[in-house]
Fold these 2 entries.
Entry 1:
Amino acid sequence: MEQETIRVLVVEDHHVVRQGLVALLNVVDGIEVVSQAADGVEAIAEFRKHLPHITLIDLRLPRLGGVDVIQRVRMETPGARFIVLTTYDGDEDIYRALQAGARAYLLKGMTTDELIATIRAVHAGKQHIPPAIAQKLAERMGTEELTPRENDVLEQIVHGKSNKEIAAELDISEATVKTHINSLLGKLGVTDRTQAATAAIQRGIVPLESLRKPKP
Amino acid sequence: MEQETIRVLVVEDHHVVRQGLVALLNVVDGIEVVSQAADGVEAIAEFRKHLPHITLIDLRLPRLGGVDVIQRVRMETPGARFIVLTTYDGDEDIYRALQAGARAYLLKGMTTDELIATIRAVHAGKQHIPPAIAQKLAERMGTEELTPRENDVLEQIVHGKSNKEIAAELDISEATVKTHINSLLGKLGVTDRTQAATAAIQRGIVPLESLRKPKP
DNA sequence: GCGAGGCTCCATCAAAAGGTGGAGACAGAG
DNA sequence: CTCTGTCTCCACCTTTTGATGGAGCCTCGC
């Protein structure tokens, strides 16, 4: 019996990686790359234009992140199937991507065969989360969610602010800052702000890019 | 007149990226990928076997890092020409790679044309550092070098240790720890340990991987 | 040999951070 | 409506951290 050709959209900002993916996939029987995008905005446009069966997407994208793309596209096309293809960027992204509706999460280190098998599986309606990722997800499940305010404070900590500066920045008293810190230290399972900062970075709660001196 | 074919070795641990690079380069006239390697140890072996004109190498490699590969290979083959091809991993890696003798440093976001042009340029004996990288390099030049001991202390700070714990770990007094910290804070241009930790991570002085709970 | 720089340690002090317990306001969920 | 959780603030206390200014020792290079 005839297999339907799987129509794929590749979203990836690194030229050589994207070109490589397209080249690899286009020689596979039953898979056709119908379009490509190099950032989140393009991705949404290309999705609308081609309505692919599967969208292969990196999470780190210029202009609009992968998670946002998944959310927005699935808002208008709930059946859209996404396979996240990324290097490890911290537990938080994995969680958010799957929450947003991604069906599979692959690390860039996987083999071509794994990639193709996953595309076929997801197209067939299955889900695919590698053990290493499932592991991270399980760990993350055991941890408490930070409140919005605690996240604000944590972000300031990562940016190297003192309690006094944080209080000024968020327009609350230093006492309140301490309260939030005490609470978030417990939730993160750490004992001081430095540990909180590294935990936030490694878990992807606060993106590393934001460290390159913004603050105007 | 006849151009000599440039023989290239591709060293990259991510399958799809490596395959993509090879596919892209092999269709280019005058360039031939003679071998591939997925980690640092393989890289050295393949280099010895094929003695390529150009080695395209990622810095993040299993078993043996890219910087070490460059150092060791150039020890026995001083004329070896390396092009570092990586995502941005912190200023420190750029510096070390160029110190080790890399001739060019490209970000993975570059176009295929840029890549090919750089390969040709390096093969012709030129050097190629993109402006963005040169910028980082210049910044790093202005900063003071940390002493070995200060680096030890900084690493402990990043791992969330208190001064007392650091003293125990390094078998020195807490007073000495404070001395080192005071010194390294000045050199890093920061005012407290939390800022020192994030600076160390972002500059690649302490690798982010080492945070995933080691310590047996 | 002498100086520079690195490593070690000291004492002291002020500032910052962290721990505890309590409390009022407010919103949303049951 | 009441309960729960969040956000806000307070006071009080201890511990930690950072700043300062010495000081002795060792090694390397000149």
Entry 2:
Amino acid sequence: MAERVRLIDVAREAGTSVSTVSRALNGSDLISPEVVAHVRAVAGQLGYRADKRAQEFKLGRPLTVGVTVPDLTNPFFSEVLKGLTGAARSGGYRLLIGESGEDPAEELRLVDELVDYSGALVLFSSRLTRQGLEKAIAQPVPVVSINRNVKNAGVVAIDYRAASRLLLEHLTGLGHRRVLYVGGPATSWSDGERRRTLRRTARSLDVTLDEIDGGWSGNHGYDAGPTVLHSRATAVITFNDLVGIGLLSWLYDNGVEVPAELSVASYDDIPIASYSRPPLTSLRNERAKLGELAWEQLSKRLGGADWPPPDLLTPELVVRASTGQARRRVRIRG
Amino acid sequence: MAERVRLIDVAREAGTSVSTVSRALNGSDLISPEVVAHVRAVAGQLGYRADKRAQEFKLGRPLTVGVTVPDLTNPFFSEVLKGLTGAARSGGYRLLIGESGEDPAEELRLVDELVDYSGALVLFSSRLTRQGLEKAIAQPVPVVSINRNVKNAGVVAIDYRAASRLLLEHLTGLGHRRVLYVGGPATSWSDGERRRTLRRTARSLDVTLDEIDGGWSGNHGYDAGPTVLHSRATAVITFNDLVGIGLLSWLYDNGVEVPAELSVASYDDIPIASYSRPPLTSLRNERAKLGELAWEQLSKRLGGADWPPPDLLTPELVVRASTGQARRRVRIRG
DNA sequence: TCCTAGCATGCAAACGATTGCAACCGATCG
DNA sequence: CGATCGGTTGCAATCGTTTGCATGCTAGGA
């Protein structure tokens, strides 16, 4: 808890002016090498650290990117965040992260707060209403939207069309003709995309697709168990791995064999997915890459360019033991 | 992306001086109510938002708390973060979060960076060496350490003594006399504490305690499988739930019945723990509370007081199906 | 020797907000 | 009727840094 050393202290100690010190430290070229060396030495000795607040204030542009995330607990989000952090840092920016707890109102509040501190905003799987989202986009800073399509903003997303096709083709390959989708939060754009692309692909593959509402957590998956069991589907696709794992747990508790009686597959492939019982077939995507692309879009835009076209990331299906040959008919009990 | 409205713009529009506007907006009492109302109205209409950088710069104190976390992916961390965020926000502070990826060198870098932007630091389960940690504590801002004991800083931690006792008493109650601990990262202070308190309690309960090294992720648990199998223990305690789940997965893959042949229990009780196969017996702690306590310590300190004594949080054992009666002898195979 | 070019340095303004202090107002009191 | 006082308001300094511009110095050419 020592006293703060300021530029003027370094200047005094080095016997020069503050401008000289500033220039020496910032590597200006109109200053003699000896002075630079001397000033640097003195600054180091005094333990000088520029006051970032003053610096950014003077420079006028905030080197901070505000990020909203629905749920930090979900590894999907935190891994994308990892990629984003790294990329932003190498661009000299840092991240201010806010978690909305899957609540649109809270997300709006967050945006409102973050915009005060940030030179750019990244909305991650935004749960905002269309209206709320447009209001957010209208902020006086550039906005990138991850996993949600929107105009006048940068967009980076998973290619759900390809994703859904991979999933369904895998299942039809195993003989499944009737598939149930356990959905995510109603506020989730990507849930809408999953449904839309699943429906479309199901039609083209001549698969019957049923849908029920679910949520985003293990609990939601567990609670969906009874409904799943009573459906006539031979395979289930869940909104994400957490839901899938919850569902597997219910199925196990209730004696339903996976995949003998029912196949389960999911989106995201979070690390824990390979440790569920049985391990979950899921769609892997390069999550860190997603974050990096978001930064790329942002930095182009900050550089003055227009928004590039949306980046779409194609996932890859990781087949594990939770999917298998379709039974002729699902056993109904309870 | 509109133009920024500044204080002076509001002043001009309202026909007063900037000082008046500033005071009106900040609720100073030496200003007439009508002027306040008028200025507020004008400001609202113009969409004025104070430049936080300028504001904080002028005020001199950064309203930011820098936080380092080993791994955002781990729900344990993200939930504590939730509590911390909420508490800090109600105190007018916001969080700058950095993830070290379990790497001490990276953590040191982070601390170095965060301190430039923050009025306080929270080190979460710091993986720093003692020396590194002391260097971090010596920063010109107050530091709170979560889950790691250290002098001249605020400390909030889980009561591992109580935790280890709960675990071992549960196991001895089931007849286990030989327990294996699968450890965490060598850099983790809390791993050290778990070992220390387990040893001590094991001695007092007349339990034989073996230890092996592990890590912090599901992979580490899975990889520990063979060693676990060949040990003579009838029960295993893992560093955390992720390790526990990984281990359960290996045991399943290799036909070891849990808990019939081997019991597994763990620390942390993250949400997914109840969905492992079998559900994991684990130690629940009020994670959000941990974050709130950290903020409480910090705000006291920021208020000028000395550091309060460490806060210790007592966990609660959640017994699930992964622990059961001890077998007379573990089957050895492979 | 003097002038000039060119490099190195310092002075001072600026970023946008807050705040101590002075100035001003009308009203009250002596 | 003038001084005083309480209550409002504006002026100007200030936070720490960057940077345009002026200035001083040195060296080289005429």
